[in-house]
Every structure is written in structure tokens, then in C-alpha cells.
Amino acid sequence: MLLVLMLGWATLYADRTCLYPLLSVIAGDLSLSSTQAGTLTGAYFITYVAMQIPAGMAGDNWGFKRVMMIMFVIAGLGMFGLGTLGRTYSLLIFFSALSGMGAGAYFPTCYGTLFQVVSHERRALSAAIVDIGMSMGLFIGMAMSGPVYEAVGSYRLPFLLLSIPTLAMVFLVKFLLPKVERAPTPSLKDYLALFGDMDIWKINFTTFTSLYGFWVAMAWGPTFLKVERGFSLSQAGFFTGLMAITAIPAGLYWGRLSDRINRKLVALIVLAASALSLLLLTKITSMPGIIITLLVYGMLSNSAICPVMAAWLGDVVSTRHPGKMGAATGFYNCVVMSSAIFAPIISGFLRDMTDSLEPAFWAAGGLIFAGTAVVLITPLFRDPKRS
Question: Are 215 and 44 in contact (CB under 8 A)?
């Protein structure tokens, strides 16, 4: 089960991140502003975020496996469209949004399945193992799109190539992912209680701030390295993608530590350090220093902190809202992944206003510090069976 879920993330992260090294290329080819280029990623995440809660509720009621298979078909068709028809800005927006719509069902169906199968003391570690797929896909997408473009001169080919494994995931899910027994259909009152839980909102907001910084680094990191630090396009995508490598062992370590010791303490350390790393990136100009900072930031960002925060959410839901794990994880990812809509667009706007991406990194670091403060007032939860 963990292997299939890991491969699902690897596929979807390669799909979404292969665009980032190509933003400046597409902008130049279609005469787009930085804000318009950032909107290409925003279109993906608008539909991605919009699907989170409906997909989670559908998974709770119809089965996570069935919903996951349908949405992989949609995601694959979106990537195929980008690779074959994505010759104009409007078509790129449309197919990017279609791909995001399909991918939007994965988080609630993946973690809705995972957190109903594994126990409290293994939640963060299991999530970290699954999240290895995020790092794998992130590195593949960031590292392959630049060289493929430079080899053939087409920004559409990386999308076409990645549509193949995306569609193939339908068969892996069908034959290798087990079915999870569905709970009785929750009532509207149950859902309102879930969506109104302020402790869930605190976890959501904190993770939003962390992922906002991550998507600033992912979406505009290659452009920052290329334009403001003198890296080549291939180097910029490769070294930004290296963050995914250090995130793998770090995510496993932080996840296991939070299972054994304290999710709040781990979150405080990781969030504060990640904010400092982003701020430090704007002060370093040497190539070795930049690479080291990116590697350190990878140990503190998305795949490192999300297993801790997602497991913390699982603790709350199993304690207060049993039977609604799909809706809860969809709600969580709806909020936190909205950062992927705002971060590229706001960062592009700041670049248009200042001719530099440094203010975008400063804003991201400050927001993460705000999330760190919210962690201080968020309570811990334990599985009732262990109390």
C-alpha cells in the first residue's frame, strides 16, 4: 500500500513541478509578464484546491480507491493536452487547470486511506514514507524539463512524456491498492463541526505558511537562480530540485521523532529554521553557498514538515471526528495548498514591482514565522485508545 501511494505522489509532483523551470521560457515565447507566467501554476492549483473537500467527501461515501482512479484519468488527460495542444496561453491555462483538477483528489484519498489503516504511533512515519514520492517527483520534474527543452526546443514535450506514467497509475491503483471499509455517511451537522474546529484551523494555517514558502522556492527558485544568480537553466532546475533529496531522510527523521516525542516541539524547530533558511537565501551570492542553503531548506520544507502536521491532523480527527478522515484531509489540503495559488502570483507581482525576487523570499520567511507562533497555541492530541 505504501509503495503505491508513494508512486502516486511521485507521478503527480513530477507533473506539477516540470512547469517551473520552463516559466521563463514560456513567458518569453508567448510574451507574458511574470504575473501572467505565475498564473499558469495558479490555474493548476485553483482547481486542485477546489477539488479537495468534494473529493474527500466522495471518498468517505463512495470509496477512496474508486475516486482516486477516476481522477488519475483526468490528471493524465490534462498533461496530455499540455503536451499536444498547449500552444497558446489560454490552452495552457485550460489544460493546467484540468491536470490540477485530477490531481486534487489524491491527497484526501491517499491520506484518508492511510490514516484509517495505520495507528497513532505510526502516522507521521508512514506519511513520511509516502511523502518520499513527493520528493522523488519534485526532483524528476525539476531536473528533467530543462534538459528535455534544451535538447528538442519544445516546452510541450516534458508534459507529454509525463502523461504516460500519470495514466498508468490508474492500473496500479486498481490492482494493488486495497479497499478501505467505509464508515456510515456523516450528517451535515458532523461536517459543520469538523469545518468549525479551531484546532484544525490552527494546523491548517500553520501548514499553509510553510507551504507558501515552499512554493515560492519551487515556482520562482529556478528563475531567481538563473536571472539573479547567474545559473544556467539546467543548473537552476537541477539545484532547486536538490531540495527534494535532503527532504527524504529529513522527513523520515522528523516524522519518527514526532511519533515518539512531541509533534509541537518538532514543528516549532522545523518551521523557525525553514524561515531563516529562506531569508538567508537572499543574502548569499556564491554558488556553493546557495546550493548548501537549498539543501538545508529541503530538510525543513514540504516533505519534511507535512508528515508531522498531517499526522497531527489525524490525531485530532480520530479523537473528535471519527469517520470523517477523507473530508478532514481534503479540508486540510484545500487550505494549505491554496498557498500554491497565491505564492507564485504574489511573488510574480513583487518581482514586477521591484525587478527582483528577493522581496518574495522575505515575505515568505515572515509568513512562516507567523505560522510558528500559531503552533504555540495549538494543543496536542492522543489516540483515545492510548489514553
Answer: no
